[in-house]
Amino acid sequence: MNRYKKLGWNTFIIGLGSMGSKFMIFLLVPFYTFYLSPSEYGQADIIMMTVSILVPIVTLSIADGVFRYTMERASKKQVFSSACAILLIAGLILILLTPLLKNIPMIQHYYWLFLVLLLVQLWNILFQQQVRANGKLILYSVSGLLMSLILLGANILFLKYMDMGVTGFLYANLLAFTFNTLCLFFGAKLYRLFSFRSINRPLLKKMLIYSLPLIPNAILWWVMQVSDRYILTFAIGIAANGLYTVAAKIPSLLSMINTIFFQAWSISAIGEKLKQNDSFFAGVFTLFSSLFFIATEGIMLIVQPFAGTLFSAAYQDVWKYVPFLLIAVLLSSFSSFLEVSYMVEKKTKQLLFTSLKGSIVNVGLAVLLIPIIGILGASIATLLGFLVTWLLRMKQVKFFRQLEHKTTFWISMGLLLAQSIYLSFIATPNIAVQVVFALGIIVCQGIVGKKLVKFVRVSRKPSEEKKAW
After folding, report:
1. Which residues of 171-209 are buried (b: 16+ CB within 10 A; e: fewer)?
2. What stretches pass through the bilayer (predicted)?
3. I want to staple 269 with a disulfide (CB 3.0 to 4.6 A). Which of 35, 249, 277, 340 is the partner?
4. CA 361 from centre of chain
């Protein structure tokens, strides 16, 4: 199977499962806005975000090492067993620290649910990475689809019929993640890979050298995505965080697609040890960026009527915060595309420094802008943080010279930024102006249309792959 076909097939299979669960989360946003107040939604979001950032810290990000070294054809049993040893120790430490959770203001009323959610997600992330590295993508997808159905049913039961509020929200997520974890464990027969005798200290040391720099990188990436919510909560109130959370769910459509593609892209890039000067690398980015420009513009056009139709009255104005967040997700997606290059070369320390500089910009601007312009300040800070990160990675991997269609690329970026400013600061956007922006994007990306045709041709004729780009 040629490289483009393989990437497309992996993206499709992973997308079947991931898109189901992630799209379900997006579809549940209107449901949450009707059954959770802004304060409740803000509280629930803070808890889930805290769990997500603690996972790489508690596990030493060992799941990333599992994926990388399994893809490198190391002994699966030794890789998996060594990682499990880390998680067993981490779980024991967490249980011993349980009394401390009662004193943390944001989670003290839900501390035991928080602990169980965290423990389940530790293993869930590890099993996902192992299953993906083993190439069992159909199991990965089916378990994701089933998880999304359980999440839907549990939310309806706990929020609509039992009116359990934040507790019901957490129960629904716990039930869904527990099912997914067990499904992966037994479906892939991962129990066959674990043995205390297979724990390999030298291999574990190599895995940790690779994964440890990814801990601060994950934290800093989280800082750029989530720190604004904490600053909003303390500066304005938890209700403001609830509004911002709903606004961020709309661009999450793009983020979902990027996450799916990143998983498939990392399999191709690491498996084939791609270099950034490979024509395949540049060609895929051209297609990827073009599709994301069009998708971003599409969401820009419908964001106002969409919010007015689906969200309850308390959330009607959240659409104003979406445009800048859309650009932030676009830049985040471009950054994650280049992240694979660091993973291939195992240069995770350099990856860390790009995230560090971007997060400093993000937090600094958030602290400065939120007290002045409120929620909109958080959106702008996030955008600029991801912009800095992306530009630094472009420079480090010397990708500027590899960028196809530079003129149309930068014009498209400028048009989307101008449209974001227009939508965020105009009370009632003019449809005609919106259409002008949309036409500009369509014209720019239409130039890339010939590349799409060549992409299809290359998929059928592998021998022409290098010539196509």
Report:
1. bbbbbbbbbbbebbbebbebeebeeeebbbeebbebbbe
2. 12-34, 46-67, 79-97, 109-126, 138-158, 170-191, 203-224, 230-246, 282-303, 324-344, 364-388, 408-425, 431-453
3. 340
4. 20
Helix (H) or strand (E) holding 430: none
CA gap 89, 189 in Å, rounded: 22
First to last CA, the chain: 19
Tell me if 440 sits within 8 A of 411, measured CB to CB: yes
Write the DSSP assignment of 193-252 as a string of letters. Answer: G--GGG--HHHHHHHHHHHTTHHHHHHHHHHHHHHHHHHHHHHT-HHHHHHHHHHHHTTH
Q: Which positions ≥6 away from 173 have C-beta within 8 Å?
A: 48, 117, 151
Q: Which residues of 390-409 are buried (b: 16+ CB within 10 A; e: fewer)?
A: bbbbbebbebeebebbeebb
CA distances from 390 to 16, 282, 444 (A): 28, 16, 21
| Exposure letters 51-62 (e unless 16+ CB within 10 A, then b) | bbbbbbebbbbb
Residue indicated by tokens 């991997």: 397
Are 335 and 386 in contact by the 8 Å Cβ rule? The answer is yes
Nearest to 184, CA basis, from 123, 234, 226, 233: 123
Q: To 10 degrees, what angle do helices 322-345 and 252-272 make?
A: 10
DSSP structure string for 147-159: HHHHHHHHHIIII
Packing angle between helix 76-96 and helix 38-59, nearest 10 degrees? 120
Sequential DSSP letters for 124-148: HHHHHHHHHHTT-HHHHHHHHHHHH
Query: pLDDT for 59-69, tens place per residue?
Result: 988 988 888 88
The residue behind tokens 């084939």 is: 272
Residues 6+ apart with CB under 8 A from 48: 117, 170, 173
Residue 445 is which amino acid?
Answer: Q
State pLDDT tens for residues 220-245: 777 777 778 878 888 888 788 788 88
Which two tokens mark 212?
A: 């440890």
The number of residues in the chain equals: 469
pLDDT digits (tens, 9 = 90+) for 170-220: 999 999 999 999 999 999 999 999 988 888 889 898 888 888 888 877 777
- CA-wise closest residue to 412 among 297, 325, 298: 297
